[in-house]
Design brief:
single chain, alpha+beta, Alpha-Beta Plaits, eight-stranded mixed barrel, flat, cyclic-guanylate-specific phosphodiesterase activity, transmembrane, c-di-GMP, membrane, transmembrane helix
Length: 768
């Protein structure tokens, strides 16, 4: 809000008062004093920092030369042993080299020769116990002819960290014959630590490109073997660079110089403690600050005593004015923004949309309106309370803003409804990309009340000017498209089209038909066998629902199940399915057919129904079917939506002795650690992996991983959608337990499935 001229005139009047002029003069003096003091401190600190960086680089250059010289001497020894071994055919070349004084001092270095079968052939170390520790080097150098530098290891005799340098030895025919090794105390490579230059908290280290310290010395402490982030510590440059870094191993800030050694998998690390390097300049800075503080205190007391009352009065006036301005700005802000999410509200969005419509008309632009509604928000709001619901809406608002450009607009219309305006478009494909980005962002887990929840969104899209040229038409058509997206299974988006009205009518026809389908006995159950992967015998079956509509014909489950879910009709339909399959299974048993487990899919609405357990108990009691012959299948995503509630329901089912399976496993979010907490009996590999398991390496690897995970949890692993012999052979070779699919039989009515059971029973009787 701009200030009026009278406001500035009043301010100038205050400046003329003595109580105002004196503090201003004092402030100028203080500013000059502290500016000079801080500048002096900064100059001296900068000088000390540059000096520390220079010293670090100098020590680093010297240390680098020492390490290179030491490694080259070790490598030269290895090459001498290699030459003597290969050229002169000496199986034990060490005595000959020692006699010629060509071996390094035995006090520091241990030289040994190990055969290709890990036998110690020669060693300068009297207490050498064997060559078992050489197996890693043998494995690496069998196909390599390079200098191999081991990770540090502790000598069991001396308890000191040691390093091993190895080279390949060849037989006369050029084949691998063994290795030559030089062992040395890791401390040897940090022996040049000079406390007078490095201080007590400096660091001198030799770091492998694998991020493992071969040796690191600080003061008298020598360590080795710990791992750090190599790329963060060693710059990718040829020069010896110095940076002020916080050491990950002890939290000390150091002027650190690092560079990788030429042609070696090692880097030298030199660090000077910032605290030690700046101790003198910091002590001097404290002296400057104390003097400046003393002078400031005297000046401040003098000015403060004179201006206290005037200052208090000015502050009270200023606070009152600021409070009025802030209140007015807040009132104006809330008139056009949502108080919870701070997004534009419905009123402001309408104004912005009208404004952009005018601009789109003028400049012949395309734009899009996206209506977004959260799926399952009411369930979370009712379960966890409104505070958790508010937290969820705030997080959704943040994720939406993260998906959009600065020129795009996102608003909250109320409840769990949001709207997005994309004012400048290149084509329709861009809108689809934004919608997919939003769906992916919202599908990520939300953490509410120390629990993990997942929600999805349905998005409807209308385009200017194809779907409307005014505010109301664009919003209405986006709203229609959003509801169509919900009907298509949620977690998707839908562009508005003229066909949507016809599709809406078709959905109404389905909904009306569903309300009478049970009483008209229009539902049918088909059964598909689950077979043992080895013997091919039927071990169980899955019941699949079909709807024989009198006008539409056989309606696929994917068409009517979502409608049944949304309307709640899935609950009575689901009860009918459960009762019918139990009755059918008991009937088969009474006819002398084998007692097999029958599987039924549970939808999300059925799973959260509070009467599920009592309904199941009643059905099992009425039909007389053994509970262990009933298996309920739930999807992986449903399993992870509300872990605590899921565990409660599954525990109740297991107490009834009902089997539990995860359907379409592999496309959700579960993990081994998550599955371990649930009382499961089997997992069913999703058919999308099985379809290309013999042709796509990725699907093959995922299928093998699922089978391995299932077996590690002692779960029965069932493959769905097996349609070819090659798929069945692959599953058999990888120890899958059971499979089902068109390769053996399609889902068939009960009377045809009975024939399959009878045929199997007859074969069993014949074999007996």
């Amino acid at each position: 809000m701009s200030k009026s001229p009278s406001h500035f005139r009043d301010g100038l009047g205050h400046l003329r008062e003595a109580y105002i002029l004196l503090p201003l003069l004092s402030a100028l003096l203080l500013l000059a004093l502290w500016s000079a003091t801080l500048y002096l401190i900064k100059v001296e600190q900068s000088r000390a920092q540059r000096n520390a960086a220079t010293v670090s680089q100098e020590i680093g250059a010297i240390y680098e030369a020492q390490i290179l010289r030491a490694v080259r001497e070790i490598d030269q020894t290895l090459k001498l042993v290699k030459y003597t071994y290969e050229a002169e055919g000496e199986r034990n070349p060490l005595p000959q080299l020692k006699e010629r004084a060509l071996l390094p001092p035995a006090l520091l270095f241990d030289v040994s020769v190990v055969s290709a079968d890990a036998k110690l052939l020669a060693s300068t170390r009297a207490e050498e116990t064997g060559a078992a520790s050489a197996r890693d080097e043998l494995r690496t150098l069998r196909n390599n002819d390079t200098l191999l530098i081991s990770r540090p290891w502790k000598d069991p005799l001396t308890k000191e960290w040691r390093l091993r340098f190895s080279r390949r030895l060849n037989a006369p025919d050029g084949t691998f014959s063994g290795i030559a090794r030089v062992e040395v105390d890791a401390a040897y490579f940090a022996s040049s630590y000079d406390a007078s230059k490095l201080g007590e908290r400096g660091v001198l280290g030799l770091l492998g490109t694998d991020g493992v310290f071969r040796v690191r010395r600080t003061g008298e402490s020598i360590q080795a073997g710990d791992t750090v982030d190599y790329d963060a510590l060693v710059p990718d440059t040829e020069d010896l660079q110095t940076s002020l870094l916080t050491s990950s191993w002890d939290g000390v800030r150091r002027y650190t110089s690092a560079r990788q050694l030429y042609d070696l998998p090692l880097a030298v690390i030199v660090g000077l403690s910032e605290e030690e390097q700046l101790v003198a300049v910091n002590r001097q800075a404290q002296t400057y600050l104390r003097r400046a503080a003393g002078a400031s205190l005297l000046l401040a007391l003098f000015a403060g005593l004179l201006s206290r009352m005037s200052w208090q009065l000015a502050q009270s006036r200023l606070q009152a004015a600021e409070a009025k301005v802030a209140y007015a700005e807040r009132v104006e802000y809330l008139a056009y923004h949502d108080a919870l999410t701070e997004l534009p509200n419905r009123s402001l969005f309408s104004k912005l949309l009208i404004q952009h419509i005018h601009e789109a008309h003028r400049y012949q632009r395309q734009m899009a309106v996206l209506f977004l509604d959260l799926d399952r928000f009411k369930q979370i709001n009712d379960t966890l309370g409104h505070d958790a619901g508010d937290q969820l809406l705030q997080e959704v608002a943040n994720r939406l803003k993260g998906c959009l450009r600065e020129s795009d607009i996102v608003a909250r219309l109320g409840g769990d409804e949001f709207v997005v305006l994309l004012p400048q478009l290149s084509d329709e494909q861009y809108v689809a990309g934004i919608a997919q980005k939003i769906l992916a962002a919202i599908a990520r887990p939300f953490h509410l009340r120390e629990q993990e929840f997942r929600v999805t969104a349905s998005i409807g899209i209308s385009l200017f000017a194809r779907d409307g040229q005014d505010e109301q038409t664009l919003k209405k058509n986006a709203d229609i498209a959003m509801y169509q997206a919900k009907q298509q299974g949620k977690n998707t988006f839908q562009f508005y089209s003229e066909k949507l009205n016809a599709e809406s009518l078709e959905r109404q026809t389905l909904e009306f038909g569903l309300r009478h389908a049970l009483e008209r006995n229009e539902f049918r159950l088909h059964y598909q066998a689950k077979r043992d992967i080895r013997s091919g015998r039927i071990t169980g079956m899955e019941a699949l629902l079909r709807w024989a509509h009198p006008d539409l014909g056989l309606v696929a489950p994917m068409q009517f199940i979502p409608v049944a879910e949304e309307t709640g009709l899935i609950l009575p339909i689901g009860k009918w399915v459960l009762r019918t399959v139990c009755e059918q299974n008991v009937a088969w048993q009474q006819q002398g057919l084998p007692h097999l487990c029958i599987a039924v899919n549970l939808t999300a609405r059925q799973f959260v129904d509070e009467h599920l357990l009592t309904d199941l108990a009643t059905i099992l009691r009425d039909t007389g079917m053994d509970a262990c012959l009933l298996e309920l299948e739930i999807t992986e995503s449903l399993l992870m939506q509300d872990v605590r509630k899921t565990l409660q329901v599954l525990t109740g089912l297991k107490e009834m002795n009902i089997r539990i399976a995860i359907d379409d496993f592999g496309i959700g979010y579960s993990s081994l650690s998550a599955l371990k907490q649930f009382p499961l009996d089997s997992i069913k590999i999703d058919r999308s992996f099985i379809r290309d398991v013999t042709s796509l390496a990725e699907d093959r690897a995922l299928t093998e991983a699922i089978i391995t995970m299932g077996r590690s949890l002692s779960l029965t692993v069932v493959a769905q959608g097996v349609e070819t012999k090659e798929q069945a052979d692959f599953l058999r070779d990888n120890a899958c337990d059971e499979f089902q699919g068109f390769y053996f039989n399609k889902p068939v009515p009960a009377d045809q499935f009975k024939v399959l059971l009878q045929a199997q029973t007859a074969r069993t009787d014949t074999n007996v």
